[in-house]
């Protein structure tokens, strides 16, 4: 069975239990969460996250722990040219990896970093050194760190398969894997309408076996735009059939596919009302048929 789900929240009193309930409401069998707010370092004590209750509900609905993906916060930059800021990234990522393990998730997705005009090679060297230290700091754990493929905006590192391969080969740890983001790879310039050729290129520099998660998003931009703007499934430039082909690819049936598509906002009365697209997008993907009215169905 294909592992298909979405990003879900972890706010409110129910914390991780609420995350599981949200995923179930979308008919998802996997999901992605943050361990806390992605924009800051404030974290609730792990004992308050209702982890045992969440795990119990997951068992009831046949969602294994390996189907839980954590996303690292955006405030860390292992490629930063300033040593003090790199050390902050190492320390905070270490603590996030430990929290990920305590929550029972198998992996944490990480944006590799931005070189901030020092050059990609210097940035990659810093990332390699930082990841080696995080792996050493968490040597008693099996938690994977999945480097996300990036779109190439600004001074991002990890924007192509060569850069990811350099980082992974130099860290040289089985715990460093890849989260393949369809929007990002398309926006960088890879043609996902020929996924087999893209996969062949990826395998040459990184290795197909390193893919431990997918972010399956359409793109608002033409190929090679380097902009990173997600679109709802089938409503962007990648296209429904190409995305379904990737989601159902036989080599990755057991790899979680996570939707990060935009919420739908509609003005009602005197305020905006926001709708999640995930239940309907998951239904559409499972059916294998593009529903042109899917976003309207969300509002019903």
Detailed description of the structure:
This protein is α/β, with parallel strands linked by helices and 300 residues long. 37% of the residues lie in helices and 18% in strands. It contains 10 helices and 14 strands. The strands form 4 sheets. An 8-stranded parallel beta barrel has the order 1-2-3-4-6-8-9-12, surrounded by 4 helices. A two-stranded antiparallel ribbon has the order 5-7. α2 links the parallel β2 and β3. α1 packs parallel to α2, α3 packs across α4 and α4 runs parallel beside α5. The protein is globular. It starts with a strand and ends with a helix.
Can you give keywords for this protein?
300 residues, alpha/beta, two-stranded antiparallel sheet, 14 strands, globular
Helical content, roughly? 25-40%
**Tally of DSSP β-strands:** 14
Q: Main sheet, how many strands, which sense, barrel?
A: 8 strands, parallel, barrel
Low-pLDDT stretches are none
H and E string: EHEHEHEEHEEHEHHEEEHEEEHH
- Oligomeric status: single chain
The end-to-end span amounts to: 29 Å
Q: In percent terms, what proportion of residues is strand? A: 15-25%
Query: Strand order within the widest sheet?
Result: 1-2-3-4-6-8-9-12
Q: Kindly report the average pLDDT value.
A: 94
Number of helices: 10
Q: How does the overall form come out from the CA principal axes? A: globular
Radius of gyration: 19 Å
Name the structural class.
alpha/beta
């Amino acid at each position: 069975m294909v592992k298909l789900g979405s990003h879900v929240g972890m706010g409110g009193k129910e914390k991780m239990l609420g995350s599981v309930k949200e995923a179930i409401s979308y008919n998802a069998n996997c999901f992605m969460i943050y361990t806390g707010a992605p924009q800051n370092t404030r974290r609730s004590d792990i004992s308050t996250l209702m982890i045992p209750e969440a795990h119990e509900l997951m068992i009831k609905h046949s969602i294994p722990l390996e189907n839980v993906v954590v996303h690292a916060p955006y405030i860390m930059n292992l490629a930063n040219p300033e040593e003090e800021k790199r050390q902050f990234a190492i320390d905070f990522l270490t603590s996030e990896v430990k929290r990920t393990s305590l929550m029972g998730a198998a992996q944490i997705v990480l944006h590799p970093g931005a070189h901030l005009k020092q050059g990609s090679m210097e940035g990659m060297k810093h990332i390699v050194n930082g990841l080696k230290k995080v792996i050493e700091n968490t040597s008693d754990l099996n938690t994977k760190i999945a480097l996300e493929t990036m779109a190439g905006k600004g001074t991002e590192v990890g924007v192509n398969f060569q850069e990811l391969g350099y980082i992974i080969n130099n860290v040289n740890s089985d715990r460093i894997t890849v989260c393949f983001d369809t929007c990002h790879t398309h926006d960088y310039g890879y043609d996902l309408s020929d996924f087999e050729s893209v996969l062949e290129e990826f395998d040459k520099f990184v290795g197909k076996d390193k893919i431990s998660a997918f972010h399956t998003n359409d793109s608002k931009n033409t190929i090679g735009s380097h902009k990173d703007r997600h679109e709802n499934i089938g409503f962007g430039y990648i296209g429904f059939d190409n995305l379904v082909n990737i989601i159902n690819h036989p080599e990755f049936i057991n790899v979680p596919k996570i939707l990060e598509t935009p919420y739908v906002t509609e003005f009602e009365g005197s305020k905006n009302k926001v709708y999640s697209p995930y239940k309907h997008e998951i239904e559409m993907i499972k059916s294998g048929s593009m529903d042109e009215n899917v976003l309207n169905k969300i509002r019903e």
